Amino acid sequence: MTTYGTILIPVPLEQAAPVLREVCTAGYATPAGPRFCLAHPDRFVDGNGVFALAGPISAELGVPVLAAFQYDGDRLELEVWRDGVRAHRYDSWPDRDDESANDAPVGADPAAFLDFATGPVDSHRLASALADTPIDAEDMDVDGEPGYVWAQALHWDVLRALSHPDQVIRRAQWDYCHMCGAPQALAEVLGSTELVVLGTADRPF
Fold first, then answer.
1. Which residues of the chain have a pLDDT value below 70?
2. Which of 47, 172, 198, 205 could share a disulfide with 187, CB 3.0–4.6 Å?
3. Does the predicted TM-score (pTM) go above 0.90?
């Protein structure tokens, strides 16, 4: 499964764009509804990963931001940053490389993510997702193991519980590498006015 890193920002794209252009060395930014936007930094540029950028973005914009990094379908990491300081960290599989360790997530506190709701919060779905306990049968492990089959589905349920529409959730799982690597597909989804090019990134279409 694919790896991706994005930052969800509770500010409209046109308001956030000047700060993102200043802070992000290379990447793209897209709208995520009328009150939110997403940053898709090039994670292969030194110091340009989502967790490195979340602090400066939160400090410059004066709002909390939610950085997400999903690794290979196995592990979801979420960090909430406020005023340049990390306020909360969630890790769905903190001991991924230790077979003898407890697989329980850390930081599964639904209250930490409420600033990123765009409407009514589905508290049950949010708590279940963060606990790595899927509600929907299709997200459960077919072998009967607890937890989500894919970390993308966990991330999807967190954002769905916060009332983000499907279109926004799909964008929140776009990685910079996928976007610049498939310009035709991206152009079909985005209009030219919906993409902000950051730093040294090339315009994909």
1. 1, 96-102, 137-146, 191-193, 205
2. 205
3. yes
